[in-house]
Design a protein that fits this description.
Blueprint: E1 2-10, E2 20-28, E3 43-45, H1 57-80, H2 84-90
Antiparallel strand pairs: 1-2, 2-3
Length: 95
């Protein structure tokens, strides 16, 4: 089973004013998938957003890098769809 991080948009719930974004783990039935073309029925994702936790500093660095990659991919997808304002909220500069 393959997996990666993905930014997911959350619709407002009762009492919330705005939508919000969070990073989730996404799982694939196969290790060899292109996560942009895999069918929805071949994926699963964490119910709750994930935190940044690791056993050591190198693991923490790896986790943050993978999360930043997911953030970059989400911004690129939003820009391709013409949703520049949402992409702007996700845009960051990677040092």
């Amino acid at each position: 089973m393959g997996w990666n991080y993905r930014v997911m948009r959350h619709a407002p719930k009762e009492g919330e004013l705005d939508e919000w974004y969070a990073i989730h783990e996404v799982y694939y039935r196969s290790d060899e998938v292109d996560d942009l073309t895999v069918p929805v029925h071949e994926t699963g994702y964490s119910k709750e957003p994930v935190g940044v936790i690791a056993e050591d500093l190198e693991g923490l660095r790896w986790t943050l890098q993978k999360m930043l990659e997911a953030l970059g991919q989400a911004s690129a997808r939003l820009l391709r769809r013409g949703l520049a304002s949402a992409a702007t909220r996700l845009a960051i500069r990677i040092p």
